[in-house]
Amino acid sequence: MTKLIKTTLIATMLGFATLQGHGGGHTHDAPVEKEISKKSIKSIATQEVKRLALAKKIDNSWLFSPISKMKKTNYNYNNEWTVSFSNAEIKDKTKQTLYIFVTIGGELTGANYTGK
User: Fold this and answer.
1) Quick check: is 52 in a domain?
2) Chain segment 48-103, per-residue pLDDT in tens
3) What is the residue range of 97's domain?
4) pTM for this predicted structure
5) Is 56 contained in some domain?
6) Assigned domain for 9 exists
7) Strand pairing category for 78-86 and 67-75
8) Residue 49 covered by a domain
9) Number of domain units in the chain
């Protein structure tokens, strides 16, 4: 009988240790990204436009284009900023707005002319 009590007690203690090690506040979600200032997001987006122009990926006239709009969006469950630049010097109307995508933490995620 004593052996049965000891075995049950040890099994119970091991069970609690396993549960505590896995459950104690642990989550499988990605870490929450610290949000940087809007001013920093503007600076990052502007620097990306300059980089793209200097790399000849976009026309040099983009170097003088102001930010026309900023909005926070949720893409694939991630919050990010969409920063739009307008350039009337571009003849193709579908390419007069350039969108730069920046996570709320300041990481560049892309750029395009569609905003998607």
Assistant:
1) yes
2) 999 999 999 999 999 999 999 999 988 777 789 999 999 999 999 999 999 999 99
3) 38-112
4) 0.69
5) yes
6) no
7) antiparallel
8) yes
9) 1
